[in-house]
Design a protein that fits this description.
The complex is a heterodimer.
Chain A (H helix, E strand, L loop, with lengths): L2 E5 L7 H13 L2 E6 L2 E6 L6 E5 L7 H10 L3 E5 L4 E5 L12 H12 L4 H20 L4 H38 L10 H26 L7 H25 L5 H21 L10 H4 L31 E8 L7 E8 L6 H12 L8 E2 L5 E3 L2 E3 L6 H6 L16 E3 L6 E2 L5 H8 L1
Antiparallel strand pairs in A: 1-3, 2-3, 4-6, 5-6, 7-8, 9-10, 9-12, 10-11, 12-13
Helix pairs in contact in A: 3-5, 4-5, 4-7, 4-8, 5-6, 7-8
Chain B lengths: L1 H4 L5 H9 L4 E2 H11 L8 H13 L3 E6 L4 E5 L1 H25 L2
Antiparallel strand pairs in B: 1-3, 2-3
Classes of the chains: A alpha+beta, B alpha+beta.
Chain lengths: 434, 103
């Protein structure tokens, strides 16, 4: 058996176009077998057939309905929740299944309004989530660029579909008023545009599949990916449940606002869970200026957890922990901890912070401060004073301390070739200075 | 909702309610309408079942028998009332016409 797969570029408003298309395919010897995310045709002898496609229907009494259709000459070829395809081999023109345009128009209006809201909701959730996530950790934006492309092109795809649908509904409304008949949709430029949108969508799907397949070979932890996607999925499911429960389909604006609120809530919840300095009696906390960082006595550093900004705005300090590629020439993956803190802090406080960050870790043997001194859990010792060239040769990123206080710490691990760096991001620091 | 939607009946709605003076199942309704109107009114299965579902929602018809795959319907009192209103409306239109045209 030979099958052919075609891109599904039809919307539910294209039921007439689909009828014509399936008939043309049957004439060419391809019989429609499946119409979902794609169209599947099976090779057979070329035959003249008539098709009737229903995309707006009530599923009650379905079995009885199919029996009556068969008695009327329309045999069910394919059926799912969104589409029904009937076929007839009669030579004469068959009586259509829908003979009342006014009723069909009413059905269309009932089904079309709010139909895409669930998809928009999910898309909006992901977009808002990423925007907030991105605003919190701007220096990893490059990792999100493909995702932005994905989100952006999905929006383009959706907007193209939406515009076509709105245009169709407008024409139908006008036709019903003027002629009492539905607007007959046929192939046009809008569908062509939609095709481009669909191609974008399929590219995105391919891209995601590719990323998923490549995951084992990338330095992206599945656990971190899981925890990143989990809130999106949970919020999406809660949202869909609420939409269905409250039947918000027709209240699109409310829906968007709801998306925004949920995203904001998610953002606040995420931020509040990362506010370790709200604990009382934290030595660093009681001193001015405050160091906005993780207090490891109360919240031990955990691998693969993204520690993000505190509740102070503008951001004075940040502690980020993420995997980075190992220095050139090694195959291991290192991890990085970065602290951005208020430049007015004095050395003692910075050292305290470093000690606090390192003392609960089992894998720490020693650390280097930016000025080359060693930092142990018992304190700081003088070390070699590196300059930038030497540091480069040593595969150490040492940032020289000038008027800005910039620290970098490398912590070697015995068991694995991991390194933890504490450093200042120059770009953000400049903003802070300004 | 019901009043607004069914304040006037289309030909197809009218004939479905008329045929259901006696109990019939879906296919019989189509055949009866075809026979009654000598083929003038043809109703598609999709339209028929959409209307039957709506009529059931509005209690214009009731199910008198249901064996799962075949359901038999009959007009209800509410359906009779709607049908009578439509008859009165049509009669009033004919009366107005006759009066105006001196027929």
């Amino acid at each position: 058996m030979i099958y052919k797969v075609k891109l599904q570029t039809f919307q539910n408003i294209d039921y007439e176009s689909m009828q014509q298309y399936f008939a043309v395919m049957a004439e060419k010897g391809w019989m429609i077998q499946y119409a979902g995310a794609f169209l599947l045709f099976k090779k057979q002898a070329p035959i003249h057939l008539q098709f009737y496609v229903e995309t707006f229907f009530d599923r009650r009494n379905e079995l009885e309905y199919f029996d009556v259709c068969a008695k009327s000459g329309w045999n069910l070829q394919y059926n799912n929740k969104k589409i029904r395809i009937f076929v007839s081999d009669a030579r004469d023109e068959m009586l259509p299944l829908q003979t009342d345009d006014e009723l069909l128009w009413d059905q269309i209006q009932r089904h079309v309004i709010g139909q895409n809201n669930v998809y928009v909701f999910i898309l909006a959730m992901i977009t808002f989530y990423i925007i907030f996530y991105w605003s919190q950790v701007p220096w990893i934006y490059s990792a999100f660029l493909p995702l932005f492309f994905f989100i952006g092109s999905t929006w383009v795809w959706y907007i193209l579909r939406l515009l076509r649908k709105r245009r169709y509904l407008h024409h139908c409304r006008t036709h019903m008023k003027e002629y009492g008949q539905l607007y007959s949709s046929s192939y046009n430029a809008w569908r062509h545009l939609q095709k481009i949108g669909n191609i974008l969508l399929y590219l995105n799907i391919t891209y995601i599949v590719f990323i998923l397949l490549a995951l084992p070979y990338l330095s992206i932890s599945l656990t971190s990916l899981f925890y990143t996607l989990l809130p999106i999925v949970i919020l999406g499911l809660i949202g869909i449940g609420l939409i269905r429960f409250f039947k918000l389909y027709k209240k699109t604006v409310l829906l968007y606002l709801f998306c925004l609120c949920i995203s904001l809530l998610a953002y606040l919840l995420t931020a509040s869970s990362l506010m370790p300095l709200s604990y009382p009696d934290t030595p660093i906390y009681v001193k001015e200026p405050l160091l906005q960082a993780i207090d490891t006595r109360y919240q031990p550093l955990t691998k693969d957890v993204m520690y993000t900004s505190s509740y102070h705005t503008p951001i004075h300090a940040n502690l980020i922990y993420y995997d980075v590629l190992a220095p050139y020439g090694t195959s291991q993956t290192a991890s990085t901890i970065e602290i951005i803190y208020d430049q007015k802090v004095n050395d003692e406080e910075a050292i305290k912070l470093i000690l606090q960050l390192t003392k609960n870790r089992n894998d720490v043997t020693h650390a280097y401060a930016a000025d080359g001194s060693f930092i142990f859990s018992t304190g700081q010792e003088e070390g070699k004073k590196w300059n930038m060239d030497e540091a480069f040769l040593q595969d150490h990123y040492v940032i020289l301390r000038k008027e800005n206080r910039v620290y970098q710490i490398k912590i070697d691990s015995d068991e694995k070739d991991a390194a933890y760096y504490i450093s200042q991001l120059q770009i953000l620091f400049k903003e802070n200075v300004a | 909702m019901a009043r607004k939607e069914f304040s006037t009946l289309t030909e197809q709605m009218f004939y479905i309610l008329l045929v259901l003076q006696k109990p019939h199942h879906g296919y019989e309704i189509m055949q009866q309408i075809d026979r009654m109107t000598l083929g003038r009114i043809k109703i598609g299965a999709g339209t028929l079942y959409t209307l039957l579902a709506r009529f059931e929602d509005e209690n214009f018809i009731t199910r008198v028998e249901d064996d799962g795959r075949k359901k038999i319907y009959q007009i209800s009192q509410e359906g009779q009332r709607i049908l009578q209103l439509e008859i009165q409306r049509l009669q009033a239109m004919i009366h107005d016409y006759q009066k105006e045209m001196d027929v």
